[in-house]
Write a structure and sequence with these properties.
Blueprint lengths: L7 E4 L8 H16 L12 H20 L4 H8 L3 E3 L5 E4 L5 E2 L3 E5 L5 E6 L23 H16 L1
Antiparallel strand pairs: 1-5, 2-3, 3-4, 5-6
Helix pairs in contact: 2-3
């Protein structure tokens, strides 16, 4: 990590965050690593994609319980509005566009490979599903239930 020290990274989660949810997440991961005798053992680290997967699986479970089914369409509908206390220290919420409201953090790389968070949003940020900088995105629906109708209209127009 020596050549990287002082560089910055933008993520929604860093292992070095100090909060109860992250302590629990790191302990569960360390126990799993030990139980499975993984290479690197106690030196293995958590990261942003791992945290995102952890949150996603728990939200899926909550949606299945709400839908009382594993039927894809029922779970997809039940997913909207799910909330989860994430290891990032924020309560994440699934929006109607099936994107999470997440925090944004800037971390500075330390010599030990971890990050000092030098800036973070005060709250989670609502994801913008369609970039306004890409031609053709104007008018695309922002809510999952509208996407099916939008795609059907586009398909009908293309076939006409």
């Amino acid at each position: 990590t020596k050549p990287l020290v002082g560089n910055l990274a933008a993520w929604n989660y860093f292992m070095s965050l100090r909060n109860p949810e992250n302590a629990k997440f790191k302990a569960m991961f360390a126990d799993w690593v030990k139980k499975n005798n993984l290479p690197g053992g106690a030196k293995r680290v958590t990261n942003d994609p791992m945290e995102a997967t952890y949150v996603g699986i728990h939200m899926w479970k909550q949606a299945v319980e709400k839908a009382k089914s594993t039927d894809v369409d029922k779970v997809r509908t039940a997913m909207v509005g799910q909330k989860f206390n994430a290891p990032s220290g924020f309560v994440l919420e699934m929006d109607g566009n099936h994107h999470l409201h997440k925090p944004v953090m800037i971390g500075e790389i330390r010599a030990d490979g971890q990050f000092n968070v030098v800036w973070r949003t005060k709250t989670t940020v609502r994801a913008q599903p369609w970039s306004p900088y890409i031609p053709g995105n104007a008018g695309k629906p922002d809510v999952v239930s509208s996407i099916g109708d939008f795609l059907r209209r586009r398909l009908a127009a293309a076939l006409a």
